[in-house]
Amino acid sequence: MIGRGRTRIVAAGIGVAALVMAAAISISAQHGRAQPVGATPQRGAAATAIAPARHEAIEVEARPLATFEIGKPNQVRFGRLQFRGGVELTSRSKSFGGISGLVMLDDARFLAVTDKAAWLTGRIVYQGQRPVGVADAVMSPIMGPDGRTLAERGWYDTEAVTADRGIAYVGIERANRIVRFEFGKLGTAAPAKVMPWPAGLAGLPNNRGVEALVAVPRGTPVSPLAGALIVITERALDPAGNVKAALLGGPRPGLFTVARHDGFDISDAALLPDGDLLLLERRFTWTTGVAMRLRRIPIATIAPGAVVDGPVLITADMGFQIDNMEALGVHVGDGGETVLTLVSDDNFSFLQRTVLLQFTLLDE
């Protein structure tokens, strides 16, 4: 069983490598320019994945992952994180996959986006505290502001989602757009409303744009950024090599940067119950394969002009049950514990996996 696990993870690394190469070829062919906003999606890997044309109830099968670190079935503590469990998810639906952003609506229900402009809603099934499956899964096209879907507009690279008080926000990477939805009133049928683009984030590199959105709620604990939308790019770097980010709206709008270390790129973010920012990061190299990392950023340090940094909570490589980890959700469990949910983006590739992992964040 351990050998099979390692084989699958190696295969996942090969899949990421192939996709990285394909992306590089595509960008080179387009002279490094992103596809024009509103254009019909071009032929190629980014345009061929299937998005649902309507609300589609799907069956999702789950294979339990008994351990997080391969070959260590009794290891559940990883720094300040305790492994609750994980599953590998598959579906016969061709529109399933590519999960790039996640919001936990409560202990079980979730809202996710795929990178092909689709919503995925559903419910995590538990045995005790261990996630064992996904039920009530429905996929829907994300609707644009004009009656067409985002995919029909060419705005298909949806990479980030966040929500607050019934409003959902989605970041579209290659199109450099942020859109909002009346999700609480209309659900996944809500049409998009285009938001102002953060000043100073123009001209982002192709495929390195907005990767994480975090809505800072007006509530308890009271945050100095209450009402702001935190916008973080994947790897748009300033001259010092830090990752560009912005505060959109709120009391202190403006640009800031996130210190970049060890070749990791940002793939998602979420707020912890105490208000601090949690970053999900990933890395791929030809020699080491895929890796993921979680980093905690004190919310008090985020301000226009700041370079923020924080401690690493966990780092995992191909010796662990990971893949291309792209989505992060945070919620408070029934017992008051802080629960982290991580999901991987399989890029609609048979060589990669959709993996859902859960951890409890421990006090010490």
Notes on the protein architecture:
- With 364 residues, this protein is mainly beta.
- It is built from four helices and 24 strands.
- It has helices at residues 2-29, 45-48, 150-153, 183-186, and strands spanning 56-57, 61-65, 77-78, 81-90, 99-104, 109-114, 118-127, 130-141, 158-164, 167-172, 177-181, 193-194, 210-215, 229-237, 243-248, 254-258, 265-271, 277-285, 289-297, 307-308, 312-316, 325-332, 338-344, 354-361.
- Strands 2, 3, 4, 22, 23 and 24 form a six-stranded antiparallel sheet that branches. A five-stranded antiparallel sheet has the order 1-8-7-6-5, with no helix packed on it.
- The relative contact order is 0.16.
Please give a handful of descriptors for the protein shown.
about 375 residues; mainly beta; 6-stranded antiparallel β-sheet; 5-stranded antiparallel β-sheet; 4 helices; globular; disordered N terminus
* Largest sheet, strands/sense/barrel: 6 strands, antiparallel
Mean pLDDT: 86
**Rg for CA atoms:** 19 Å
Structural class determined from secondary elements: mainly beta
What does the secondary structure layout of this molecule look like, with pairings?
Blueprint: H1 2-29, H2 45-48, E1 56-57, E2 61-65, E3 77-78, E4 81-90, E5 99-104, E6 109-114, E7 118-127, E8 130-141, H3 150-153, E9 158-164, E10 167-172, E11 177-181, H4 183-186, E12 193-194, E13 210-215, E14 229-237, E15 243-248, E16 254-258, E17 265-271, E18 277-285, E19 289-297, E20 307-308, E21 312-316, E22 325-332, E23 338-344, E24 354-361
Parallel strand pairs: 16-20
Antiparallel strand pairs: 1-8, 2-4, 3-4, 4-24, 5-6, 6-7, 7-8, 9-10, 10-11, 11-12, 13-14, 14-15, 15-16, 17-18, 18-19, 19-21, 22-23, 23-24
